[in-house]
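Chapter review. Work through the record for FAD:protein FMN transferase before attempting the end-of-chapter questions.
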Amino acid sequence: MGTIMKTTKYLAALLFMSLAIVGCSSSSAELEVYNHHFFAMDTLVELTGHTDDPQKAEEAFQAAQKEVERLEKLLSAHIEGSDVYNITNNAGIEPVKVSEETFNLLEKGKNYGEKTEGRFDITIGPLLEAYSWSNQVVPSEKEVEHLKELVDYNKLVLDNEKNTAFLETEGMKLDLGAIAKGYIVDKAAEEMMEHGIKYGSVNGGGDVYLMDKPDGTPWRIGVQHPRMERGNFIGVVNTNSNSVVTSGDYERYFMADDIRVHHIIDPKKGYPSQKIQSVTISAPNATIADTLSTALFNYDPEQAVDFVEEIDEVEVLIVDSEGNVFKSSNMKEKFQPNQSLE
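Structure tokens for FAD:protein FMN transferase:
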């Protein structure tokens, strides 16, 4: 299989992250804008706070960073000793007692599996590990068919009384990446607000939580054009929602026999969906936005919009494989397209 790897300067990509929030400087002469960056969850985390007290900003940033690092150690599939690691390590053997936070997130993940009829599945670990984007590896059809048998959220048994989680079949593996990052971003924002930061944002590798703006106006969030260099937007979302998250097939991929092998795998098919280029979700929190931006990738665009129309306070913008744009009813009012592309 001939392959062409898409290469991107990693640091340059990280620098472009800040361009997603358009025009976010403080409008008040009394407030200064403070920023803090650190690396976690395999990405750059960017904290921004508007305040007149630099000490308050520093304390809020440090508290948020500690929370991110604590939760990563709890929820990562790859950190030895984490709750998720321990559940996978005991698949087919015995239930594992986990923290209340982990248990609640597992419940949410399993519920989304049911709501999406398996298009979102937190037991997708075996399939994800079979691909390698750095080494340009695609599993064989035979291997995919075998691994699909190990992906089934129904085989994740949760015991509310004992706070335990159990993967019924040996070889099953949890991966909370498509829900945990949003959850961690939410918790980081909570820490900042509890430490006195009312205005600001948290950006965890594109999962964005938005607090209030000092001037009370909506946030303007640029939506990356999925087929142009970073920093080129198909338009801007004007929103008062607390979170906007975009998932795209351009974020991590390689080309194999003219097929884009990206990182969002359809749990039911075992391969990356080829129907959609990007999904942008506006939601009350990053947990919801993170989860749905992944799940809806595995729908037809029209089905995805219909799915969102049934959820309060959630909006979606989709770019399909042909570059057509689909929007939920409320998103139509908030999306301002880039006129230069029309």
